[in-house]
Amino acid sequence: MTEKKEKNTEVLVNKIIAFSSVDGPGNRTAIFLQGCNFDCYYCHNPETINLCNHCGHCVSVCPVGALDMSDGFVNWNEELCRSCDKCIEVCEQSSSPRIKRMNVDQIVKKVKKTRPFISGVTVSGGEASLQTDFLEEFFGEIKKLELSTFLDTNGSILLKDKKKLLNNLDMAMIDLKSFRSSEHMRLTGIDNSNVIENIKFMARIGKLYEIRTVIVPGVLDNEFNVDHTSKLLAGLDQKIRYKLIKYRPVGVRSERIESYSPEQEYMERLGSLARANGCKNIVLV
């Protein structure tokens, strides 16, 4: 007799990328959940922040009729959709009508189709750690497939008490938006105390794969952030990857931020600073 599952947790999924080479090591399937507790100035996926309020503003701009309104709800026809993003461009809610409610079984079924070609699965967002019940159950199922499990997180939700999640999680990738707490608060609406605590804890238990810092000229104190973050990281484990990411004005809400993509020379200089502070594994993108 087949053992009956106790749960089949549902989540709102923004998108699933079957094959990704940028969401952790190797070729991975990446699942992006809807909903975030940060509201970063430079967010390049602002449509993942909030939930659709079914205002209907997006329906009329769809050129192929993939959206309609019925009983007060926006409905999305995935088969008709061309992913032109016109619906997202007019959304004032920082959301998207192209969101699916999916349960663990449905997502695992999709992963099984890519399993022969991937090394693992990464769950991102939005902010995936807001969906702890889902992560615990989903990662448990993924481990049964002998795939690695990675969490891409802003670090705002403390992980040290999430025992079941940690048991099924191989590695975390944490974004440290700013090392200075006041700047982090201004940028995201939340201070960075939990983020730094998570970085220290995950490094201590050997489950911190990468720290990420976005370099945003004219908005953040980039040299201060790289200097102090790299010193923290080098003191924890010099082999943990430190990724410095160029700000790129693609997909951002232009009314929220005035910045530009930094020159490669500047990125190299920041990389040298991190290296001088003891970081051994630095990536510039």
From TrEMBL:
The 4Fe-4S ferredoxin-type domain, residue ranges: 45-72
Pfam (any one): Radical_SAM
PROSITE patterns, alphabetized: 4FE4S_FER_1, 4FE4S_FER_2, RADICAL_ACTIVATING, RADICAL_SAM
This protein's UniProt keywords: 4Fe-4S, Iron, Iron-sulfur, Metal-binding, Oxidoreductase, S-adenosyl-L-methionine
Required cofactor(s): [4Fe-4S] cluster
Molecular-function GO term, any one: 4 iron, 4 sulfur cluster binding
The keyword Metal-binding is annotated on this UniProt entry: yes
Annotated Radical SAM core domain residues: 22-280
Catalytic activity, as annotated: glycyl-[protein] + reduced [flavodoxin] + S-adenosyl-L-methionine = glycin-2-yl radical-[protein] + semiquinone [flavodoxin] + 5'-deoxyadenosine + L-methionine + H(+)
Family to which this protein belongs: Belongs to the organic radical-activating enzymes family.
The protein's name: Glycine radical enzyme activase, YjjW family
Record lineage: Bacteria, Bacillati, Bacillota, Clostridia, Halanaerobiales
